[in-house]
Records
---
Amino acid sequence: MNSQFTKEDIITLAIESSCDETSVSVLKNGRTVLSNIIASQIEQHQKFGGVVPEVASRQHIESINTVIKEALEEANVTFEDITHVAATYGPGLVGALLVGLSAAKAIAFARGIPLNGVNHIEGHIYANFIQHKELEPPFICLIVSGGHSHLVYMKDYGEYEVLGKTRDDAAGEAFDKIARVLGLGYPGGPQIDKLATKGNKRAIAFPKAYLERGSYDFSFSGLKSSVLNYLNTEKMKGNPIAIEDVAASFQQAVVEILVEKTIACAMEKSVKQITLAGGVAANSSLRGLLQQEAEKHGLSLKYPSLKLCTDNAAMIGCVGYYDYIRGYRSTLDLNGVPNLKIGERYSKYL
């Protein structure tokens, strides 16, 4: 036995490959990260202005073995030290998911150890458990990324109530699309966040979609259309366009609706704890306004480090650990589920 562990320690090898990051992590007892290697594909996809599924799958195939090797070496462990394997099986790009899932199943089969299939969205929530060792449910979590916008009430480990989600574009997807029309490149979120610091967030009154009374769902398609209409109208009039003002005003409209609905959820559920997760959780304006409003309402806010906001295997390993100790096991015929919903368990999930 590895001298850095006791016989009670549970060592998780986790794999994440749902989109354009190939990531492998080794964790001890769910919350202690021994390694968290991320191989990004941003350079490969930048020339296309977004993620190309076939390119992503090929890059995962090329990277997966190297990233596994690096993760083991950095953690100073071997396959013999691993207690079980966790891997993302949805939601995500099916070809990308299958690369990581196939590697995880091969390791589990070869070593004769359990496999835990993990929901990627749940992984984003659990990134907060890694960052904040004292954090425990219940709490409200706002998950905002390129593909997902959810408001979730986490009652306990593995128990979720989805209170709201996007009806069209996810917040991160809207950021990418607006960044593209502003000529800022991919990925759009960090570019808009940076440019917005130079602009006036009240310069343009872009709309916020509240939807019907009492709804915690989001809609960003109307906002996106409003930005496009503004740009086209100003160009037709021959007016100069201050793109920093457009970026700041667009970002403010997104952030305000996210924050308002998150605070309302927390008040309705009478919880004192809010968490933030997903790639857009790295947005400085979102963090700042949510912190400000949380303090105003007597709520505590927690969010992960920037590295844990992006897609990474450590968050997947954390979910896998808690599923493992609660007795869940996946069979080796586990398949990728591109549209997996939060809280769902695959039919073969025992």
Note: The chain is about 45% helix and 20% strand.
---
Amino acid sequence: MSKPFRPRFQGDVELNELPDHALLSVINIPGAVAASPWALIGRRFLYAFVLLIAITLLAYFDRGGYSEPLTFVDALYYSAVSLSTTGYGDITPVTQGARLVNILIVTPARIAFLILLVGTTLSVLTENSRKTLQIQRWRKLVRNHTVVIGFGTKGRSAVSALMADGMPASNIVVVDTDKAALSRAERLGLVTVHGSGTKADVLKIAGAPRARSVVVAPSSDDTAVLVTLSVREIAPKAMIVASVRESENQHLLEQSGADSVVISSETAGRLLGLATVTPTVVAMMEDLLSPDEGLAVADRPVAEDEVGANPRHLADIVLGIVRSGELYRIDSPEAETVEPGDRLLYIRRTAGERPEKVRD
């Protein structure tokens, strides 16, 4: 690529070259929801005000123990200058009791008052340090996870299917440029990365080179092609599953390196056509495609006692056999006998579901 055009496609600084503390606005790892800085400031000022009033009342009730008789305003003034360590010296404790109160109560209160005033700054610095260490540890350990690029309708559905099939939220990383979409992903407990999936440095931040699979689900087909090219370049071993709207773009995704391409418009069109003729079939298809409801399509390795058997005679309803990475339907000659190392594609009943009568 010629030098004048380089800035149009690449930033001056690669994200993956930045130190971890510079990625606080890029990577979000779910954890306890922290209060806003303004809430922390307001709460600490309230505590400081309560402490000030308490010391004021204490000094006012013992107003005869000071260098001059105290009014309530004098007691408030004395408390303020004492707790803030200003200490002008115009009002001082003179009796043994007043001095003992200052030693045992006012001095610890002064320390607590200062901690409250600087606590917000310390809290923010501590929180940022904690998040930086969390990001550093996550980037070192993350591997064999799934990266979902695009958290629109398709991306959210893909994540729902993954989690319903047993994948923990900690094994899913969402990449998107929309902060509202990332906020929805964070509420699900997912790790999020703010940036474009077309950029290699963003994909590296998301751990794509060490990912087991990558789901490409942007809103447009041209973006899907660019994302797939970028992912395949930095993650040659990852399984890439991509979605396109139009069937004529399927070959572009396959040429870009996608292992599997889902055509959303054709799938929706087929379901719409079926719904006009046999709506119950569509209801059953939706059931099969929802891993957390009713029935679901799943795969599993064959058991030792199933080797050599006809898959039609097994306890599960088998749809096909996966052998050496190839899928053979149940009616194909290759699927007549189960062989060692095969995986069965079957219909699984989700836990806790009872058979229901299909309505006419």
Note: The CA atoms of residues 53 and 214 lie 59 Å apart.
